[in-house]
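Need the bound structure for flavin mononucleotide, inputs here:
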Amino acid sequence: MKNIADLRKEYTKGALEPRDMGADPLVEFRGWFQQALEAEVLEANAMIISTVNVENRPSSRVVLLKEITPEGIVFFTNYASRKGQEMSLNPCVSAVFYWAELERQVRVEGIVRRISKADSDAYFYSRPRISQAGAVVSNQSEVIEDRKTLDAQMEALMADESIKIERPEHWGGYEIVVDGIEFWQGRPGRVHDRARYDKMAGAWVKTRLSP
Ligand SMILES: Cc1cc2nc3c(=O)[nH]c(=O)nc-3n(C[C@H](O)[C@H](O)[C@H](O)COP(=O)(O)O)c2cc1C
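Answer from helper R.:
Posting the output first, comments after.
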């Protein structure tokens, strides 16, 4: 195996001038996301979100971005999962996107809130039946013996297409209402560009950070 310490790559694909960026970082984010789609970044909507438990221990996992709103970003999960429980006690979260093909990173910080039941319904019922069934059979984050019971429950739910699969009450969306966001563009020699936005007294303040 190659020596891990020798793995390195120069970043040469772009540059970032915070002064040229707009006043609203969510508009900027939408533009960057569109560019990630155009660059065919693999699962551009995959983001790592971190939550913090009551002992102040953070934990991280990948979820999928499903919507960009004027105030934040939306993902869906099980409200009773480990992350769901952690967010109900501490709604402060961070999220990060890494788009290797563009040598870009976006870091997001904010406060989560549950989206409305109607909006969770709208997304749930737009999903393929197999994903609806998956949400029903999974008590996400709970310890289970093996996958036999899951498979049997899936089979039963998939068997009769005429039976509607209802959205479980404990499954739905969260919106991260963003109050801090950083756009990062890799540059040669690790002298990267970083544009940071912080919401202060209701207004966005933009700064350039040292790499
Ligand atoms: C590419 C990818 C996408 C994922 N998308 C989601 C998602 O949108 N929602 C979700 O609840 N879990 C998603 N997962 C699974 C989570 O990473 C995680 O395993 C699960 O949510 C349980 O996390 P928890 O026990 O910390 O609550 C995804 C995993 C990967 C690798």
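Comments: DSSP finds five helices and eight strands in the chain. The chain has two domains: 10-125+169-208, 126-166.
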